[in-house]
Amino acid sequence: MNDRYGRRSAILVADFLFFIGAVIMASAPNPALLIVGRVFVGLGVGMASMTAPLYISEASPAKIRGALVSTNGFLITGGQFLSYLINLAFTKAPGTWRWMLGVAGIPALLQFILMLLLPESPRWLFRKGREEEAKAILRKIYPANEVEREIQDLKESIESEVEETGSSEKINMMKLLKTKTVRRGLIAGVGLQVFQQFVGINTVMYYSPTIVQLAGFASNRTALLLSLVTAGLNACGSVVSIYFIDRTGRKKLLVISLLGVIISLGLLSAVFHETSSHSPLVSPAATSQFANYTCPDYGSAKNAASWDCMKCLKASSPDCGFCASSADKMFPGACLISNDTVKDTCHADDRQWYTRGCPSKYGWLALIGLALYIIFFSPGMGTVPWIVNSEIYPLRFRGVCGGMAATANWISNLIVAQSFLSLTQAIGTSWTFLIFGVISVGALFFVLIYVPETKGLPIEEVEQMLEHRVLQFKFWQKSSSTSAKNQAV
User: Which domains, ranges and CATH numbers included, belong to the chain?
Assistant: First the structure.
C-alpha cells in the first residue's frame, strides 16, 4: 500500500482500522467479536508502526530528520504511559474494560481528520512522476538555498532507479535481494528490528507488574504503580533520543544504549539469582496454623524440611502460595493452596501473600535494574531501529523493505512475549534475563559490524554510501575508489 497508494493513504487506512477495531471491541457481546476487534487494531498497528516513521523521514530536512522520527517514538511511549493512567482511571467505572478499549477510537479519529490536511510524501510523489506537486512541498520544507539541490539529488536518484529497473511497479523479490544496496540495507534494518525485541524490551513493558512481583513485591497495586514508573521512564528516554540523535549519530547512540542494557540485564540476573537462592524457608509450625489449606505437595513431601518459598511456588498440583511471617517477611512462613479464600485468610493475620515471587531483601535492586534498563534502552534501541529503517533503503524499495523490517519486529515481539513467562517457569527469572543479556552482546557486535552511520545524510546519499562502502570488521569504511572520487570532488 505504501508503494502503490502512498504513505499518507496508508496512514489514513491504518487510522480507519484503529477506529473500527476500537468500536467493535468496546461493543463486543462475546469473546469472539472482541478478538475480531483486536485483529482490526493489530492490522492498524502493523501499518502505522512502519508507515509513520517512513512518512516523517521523507517529509523532513536531513538535519532534523532523526529528531522528528524520534519524536514519533516519544509520542508512542508517552501514549503508552497515558494509557496506563487512563486504564487506572477506568478501573472503578461501570463497564470498565469497554471504556478502556473504546477510548482508543478517539485519537484514531482525530489523526484521520488531521492527516487529510497534510500533503503526501514528496519523495513518493517524485517517484510517481508528480514532480510539480513534490517540488511545491519540498519548497515548504527546505530553506531556499537548499531546496534546488534536494530536488536535483532526488531527480537523479529516481532516474538511476528507472534506468536500472524500468518503469514497472512490480517488485521482483529475488532481484531486490540481489541488489547490493538493498541487501545491505535489509541486513542492517531487519537485524536491528529483530534485536530490538530479542534484548527483552517488551517483556519489561508487558510484564513489568509481574517482574516487580517476581522481585518480591507482593501487592498487585504496588506492582501496577511501579509499572507506571517504567512506562514514564520509557517516555523520558525518548526525549533524550530527540536531543542526541542528530548530535551523536545513530550508531554511537546504539552502542551506548546496548552497553547500558547489557549492564542492566546482568544486574537483574544477579538480583533474581539472589532472590531465588535466598528465599525464606517453609515452617511446619507456621503451615500448621492453616491446617485445612496446606499445600498437598508440601504435606506429602519426604524432605519437607528442605522446602523454601521458591519450591513452594513451583508446586503445581494444585498451585500453591507462600504466606510470609507477620514478624518479618524473611522469616520462615507457610506453604498453602493458592486461592482467594487462603489469600484473604493470610492477609487477615497481617501477613503478605506471595504467588509469583518470594520475599527478598534485594527487591529494590531489581527496581533499579529495571529503571536502568529502560533509561538505556529507550533513547537508543528503542527509537534508532525505526529511524534507520526509514532512511536506509532506496526510494523504490522503501515501502516493501520497511514492511519486511516491521514484520520481522512484530514476529520477534510475538516470540519473546509468548515465551517469557514459560522461560521464567522452566529455567527461572535469573537465567531468562541472562539469556537476554547474551543476546544483547550479540546485538552490540551486530551494530559495530553491519550498521552504517546515516546522521545528517540526505536520503539519496545513504543509498550511494551503501553502494560504495565495503564491509570491514567492526566498522563500515569507504572503499579506496570512493575515497579517491571524494578527494577529486
Answer: 2-118+189-273+364-457 (1.20.1250.20), 284-354 (no CATH)
Distance between CA 104 and CA 232 in Å, rounded? 19
Residue-averaged pLDDT of the chain: 83
Q: Cell triple for residue 424?
A: 521464567
Question: In whole angstroms, what is the distance from residue 444 CA to residue 377 CA?
Answer: 12
- H/E stretch holding 323 reads strand 320-323
For residue range 299-353, what is the model confidence (pLDDT) as tens digits?
888 888 889 988 888 887 678 899 998 888 889 999 999 888 888 888 888 888 8
Element (H, E) at 436: helix 429-450
Tell me which of 95-104, 259-268, 408-417 is least confident: 95-104
User: For the whole model, what pTM was predicted?
Assistant: 0.72
C-alpha to C-alpha distances, 433 to 211, 267, 269, 363, 439, nearest whole angstrom: 11, 9, 5, 15, 10
Neighbouring residues of 152: CB distance < 8 A, sequence distance ≥ 6: none
Q: Please check whether residue 393 is in contact with residue 189, taking contact to mean a CB–CB distance below 8 angstroms.
A: yes
Name 470's bridge partners: 477
Query: Helices 65-90 and 220-248: crossing angle, nearest 10°?
Result: 170
- Cα–Cα dist 261/410, whole Å: 21
CA angle at residue 258 from 252 to 260, to 5 degrees? 105
Cell reading at 426: 522452566
Q: What is the bridge-based pairing of β-strands 320-323 and 353-354?
A: antiparallel
Other CB atoms closer than 10 Å to residue 466's CB: what's the count?
A: 22
